[in-house]
Structures
1.
Amino acid sequence: MSKIFIFSILWWLLGNPFLALIVLLVIIYVLDRRFVGMFPSVVKPLRRMSRIRALRRQVANSPSDMSSRYELARLLLERRHYSEARRWLEQIGHAYEESAEYWDDLGTALLHTGDAATGEPYMLKALELNPRVKYGEPYLRLASYYARQDGQKAIDVLERFRDIQSSSCRAYYMLGQLDRSLGREQEAKASFQEAVTIYRSLPKYKKRSERGWAIRSWLRSLF
C-alpha cells in the first residue's frame, strides 16, 4: 500500500507515470542497498573493472609484486574469467604455498577450466590447511561439482560442511540450494532456517553484509 501511495504522490509531483515509476524504483533500490542488500550493486562491477585495469598496470611495471598479481587473479575469479585467473594464480604458487585461500582459488579456477582432476585435490588441500577457509565454501563448490556426477559424493561433502558450523548466511543459503537440487527438501529447509538463525546471532556490524542472504533464505524456507 505504501508503494502505491508513494507512486501516486510522485505521479502527482512529476506529472508523468513512467517517470514516477522510474523514480520509485530508484528509491527502492537505494533503500535496499542501504538497509537490506537483496539487489546486486550497480557500482561494485564498475569499481572492480577499474581496479583490474589499475592492477594490470601495476604488475606490468612491477613483475615481482606477488600481492598485486594475487588480487588481480581474485578479481578475475569474481568476474568468472577463470582462464586468465588460472594463469596468474599458477605464476605465484611459490609465494602462497601455505595459504588455504590460494589453493581454493587455484582449485576453483582449474575446476572451471576443465581440469577437475587437479583442481579437486587443490581444494581439498585448502580444507586440510584450514577447514573453515572462506566459511567452508570450498565444500559447497565441490558439492556443486559432484552433484552433476555423483549425488552421494555431493551429500557426503555437504555433511562435512555441516560439521564445521559456519557462521555465514550466504554459505547456508548455498547449502540449501544444493540440498534442494539433490531432492533433499527437509535438509534444504533446515539449511535455510539455519541461515536465518545465524543472522539473528550475528553482531550488528556483520548483519549488514549478511541480511540479503538471510532474507533470501527465509523466503526459500517458506516457498
Note: DSSP finds twelve helices and no strands in the chain.
2.
Amino acid sequence: MNMVLEHAAKTLSGSGLVTAFLFAGIVFYLAGLLADKLTRGRIHSSAIAIFLGLIAAYIGGLITGGEKGLADIAVFSGLGVLGGSTLRNFTLIAASYGAKMEEIKKCGIAGFLSLFVGIFTAYTTGAIVAVAFGYRDPVSVATIAAGTVTFVVGPITGQTLGASSAVIALSVAAGLIKTVFIMIMTPFVAKRVGITTPRMAMIYGGLVGSTSGVSTGLAATDPALVPYGTMIATFYSGFGCLLCPSILYQLTRMILPG
C-alpha cells in the first residue's frame, strides 16, 4: 500500500500542472454541488470555490509553514503555475472576447469616468479603514487602500513602495473580501439597479472593478453581459496599477506625512 501511495505521489508531482487542473476541477465540482444544494443557485459556485481555495491554502500553509499555501507541497506544486500571473492574464483577456464594438461605443464617456470614480472611491475607503485600524505610515496605508481597489493592485503597489509582507498580505485579503462580496451581491442587485444592458454592465465594471467578482456576478445574472463588465473591470485593474503607486500614493503622503 505504501509503495502504491509513493508511486502515486511521484506521478502527481511529476505532472504538477495536470495535477493542479485536476485539483481545481474537483474544487469547482464540489463548489457547484454546494451552490445547488445549499444555496439553490443564489450564491454562484465561483464564490464558494474561492472560499474553499482559501481554506485549502490556509491548511497548506499550516502544514508546510511556507508562504505559497498548497503550492509548497510537492504534489500540488503545479498550483503555483496554474494560479500564476501568466495564466491569470490570459483568462482576463479571454473573458473579454465576445464583446461587440458597437455596444462598447455606446458606453461613451460614462464608462471612462466610471473607472476613475471607482478607483478613487475604493482607494479612499481602504485608506480610511487602514487609518481606523491604526496604520499611519503612507506606504502601509497606500498598500492596503490599493488592495481595496483589487487584490492584484494591492501587491503590485506594496512591492513598488517597499511595504512589508504582512501589509501586502492584508491588501490581498481586502481585495479578496471585496471580490467575494461582489460575486454574492451582484445577482441580487443587478436588475434592481438597472444592470441589464451592455452599457450598464460596463459602467458597473468600471465602478466596482474586481474582474473576478464582476465576471462571476454577471455570469449568475446574465452571461451575455460578462464580456462587457469584464473588459472594463480589466481596464480598472490596469489603471489602478498606474494610479495607486503614483498619484494616489503622493496624495496619501500629503495627508499622512508619516
Note: The mean pLDDT is 81.
3.
Amino acid sequence: MATQAEAFPGWSRATLDDSIVNPEVYTDSTAIHDLYTRLRAEDPVHWTEPVGFRPFWSITRHADIVAVAKANDRFINRERTYLSPIEGEAWIRSMTGDSHLFRTLVDLDDPEHRKLRQITHSWFQPGTVRSNLEAPIRSIARQHVEMMRSKGETLDFVNEVALWYPLRVIMTILGLPAEDEPLILKLTQETFGSLDPDVVARSQTLTQGVGVLAGSGSGNPQVDLLALAQIFFAYFGKVLADRRASPRNDVASVIANGLIDGAPIADREALSYFVITATAGHDTTSSTAAGGLCELAKNPAELAKLQADPSLIPLFVEEAIRWVTPVKHFMRTATEECELGGKTIRKGDGLALFYWSGNRDAAVFADPFRFDATRNPNPHIAFGHGVHMCLGLHLARLELRLLFEELLPKIAGLELAGEPKLSTANFVSGLKTLPIRVTWR
C-alpha cells in the first residue's frame, strides 16, 4: 500500500492520522471537513495509524461507506464498534470479557442483532409512530416552544430547549418520570462527551463510592465510563424489575418482557437496550434540531422559504440531519480479504465509516457545503445504511418536523447572538451551545 508520504506529500502523521481521531479537531467543522475533503479526493480508502490506536482504514466516500454497510456479513460490528484507544479497548475487555461495555443493537451482528431489533420493531415503524405518537409529541413540541418564548428574545437554544424536548419525548415513550430527566441527560452527556472539558468540569459523583472522573492515557481527566455503566445499570435495573412485575403500555415494558428464541431477554441485553434507547434516542435528535436552527439563523432566505411554505419542513429536516450527522462514525471489521476503492482489505482489518464525510461528498450532493433547506433528493447516510440503519429514524424525523412546525410560524426574526460551539467528541457530537436572538410574532 502507498505510504502516507506518497499519498499526502507534505502532510505529517500528526496532521492526518492523529487528527482524524482527535476529539478536539471535531470542535472545528472547517478543519475536520478540510481533512475529509482531501481524503475523499486523494486517498478515500486510507490506511490510518494514529498513535495509541489500532490501525484501521478510513472510509470517506459515500459510495464506499454504503458498500461496506450493505455487506454486513463481510464487515461486522461485534469486534469494534467505535474508535477507542488501545488501552481503552483493553480496559473494556478486562471489565466485560468482550469488546463492548454494553451489548446494544449497534454492537452486535445477525442473528443476535436481528432478534434484538425485532423486540421493538413494531413500535418504531412509521405507521405506528404517526398513529400513536404524533399527537402527544406535537403537544410536547408546543409546550417547549411556549417555554422558549417565555425566555424572551435571547437564549441558548441547545441548553434551554434542544436538549430537553427530545428527552421528554423519549422519557414518555419509555414510561420514565419527568423528574429523572436531569439524571438521564447528565449520563448521556458524559457518555458521548467523556473527553469534553465542559462535561468533565460538570461531572460529580452520582452515587456514594462510585467516582465519575478518571485519568486517560494522555494524563487528561475524562469521565469514567465504567462508573457511568454502573449508574445506568442500577437505574434501569429497577425499571427492568418493575416492568417485568407490572408491564405497562410503554417501550420499557416491551424491552423488559422481550423474548429471544422463546426465552426472556438476558439482563445485560435488556439493560443495554434501555441505555441506547434513552441516550441515542434523544441526543442525536437534539443535535440535529440545534444544527438546523443554527443554519436558519445564518441563512434568513432559507428560513423565509420554510415560513412561506411549511410543507417544505420535511425537506429541511433531512438537510439538517445531513448537515449535522450526529453519529460521526461507526467501525466495522472485515471477515475476509476483499477489495475496496482499489485497496486490498485484509481479514481482521478495521474500517471506520466516516458518515460526516460521506454526507459532504460532491459526487452525491450538489454544492455539498451549502445548507439547502429544500434539497431534494437527499440520499444522506446519517442514519447509517443496511441492516444497522437507525431503528428510531422515523421517530426522529417526526420529532424534528413537529418541533419546527410549531416553532417557525412564531418567529419574526432570527440571528446568532454569539459563537456556537461544537462538543469535543469524535463519535457522537453536535453543538453544545447555540446563543440566538429571536424576534417573536
Note: The domain at 4-440 is CATH 1.10.630.10 (Cytochrome p450).
